[in-house]
Amino acid sequence: MSPGKRGSLAGLQPASATPPPLPARPAASPPAEVQTPVQRTPEIQSTEVARPRGGRRPPQGTPAGPEARTPASPPGLPKYLRLERKELPIWPDQVTNLSVLARVLNRNRRRAGERITTNTLIRVAVALLLSRAQDLAGTTEEELRRSLGLTD
Questions:
Q1: Cα angle vertex 124, ends 108, 44, to 5°?
Q2: Across the chain, what does the average pLDDT equal?
Q3: How far apart, in whole angstroms, are the C-alpha atoms of residue 97 and residue 102?
Q4: Max CA-CA distance within the chain?
Q5: Burial call 106-140: b when 16+ CB within 10 Å, e when fewer
Q6: Per mean pLDDT, which of 17-21, 46-50, 85-89 is the most reliable?
Q7: Whole-prediction pTM value?
Q8: Local structure of 68: helix, strand or coil
Q9: Number of helices followed by number of strands (H, E) in the chain
Q10: For residue 142, what pLDDT is reported?
């Protein structure tokens, strides 16, 4: 580049005979350990499963109600720290419809109560599914949906 050319900062710098030295490369360190988040799992107080109010045992293989599986959580922990993470692949239209529904419900709540997210709606759907576990029958997703009266 010619020293008189304008339009570049390099043209304003005086020409030097030797380029500046490169910075020293730090010593190779071992690869960083992958850090996993610490999960705060509440300690289980009892291994006994609570029975339904009628005194009957659920049929073999039927999951117990949510109150039987929910361990006592330490007081004062926010809800998001009491929940366990589970990834869920769902259909694209379900993602869209859940997002729209969460926005509508949040708009209608007028800042009362807690914020409703798509994860909130998924937890409610899981609770509904578990409450209807006795109705589930089938070996495919479509058969399971039909057994609950859901259509495509």
A1: 130
A2: 74
A3: 9
A4: 95
A5: beeeeeeeeebebebbeeeeeeeeeeeeeeeeeee
A6: 85-89
A7: 0.49
A8: helix
A9: 5, 0
A10: 92
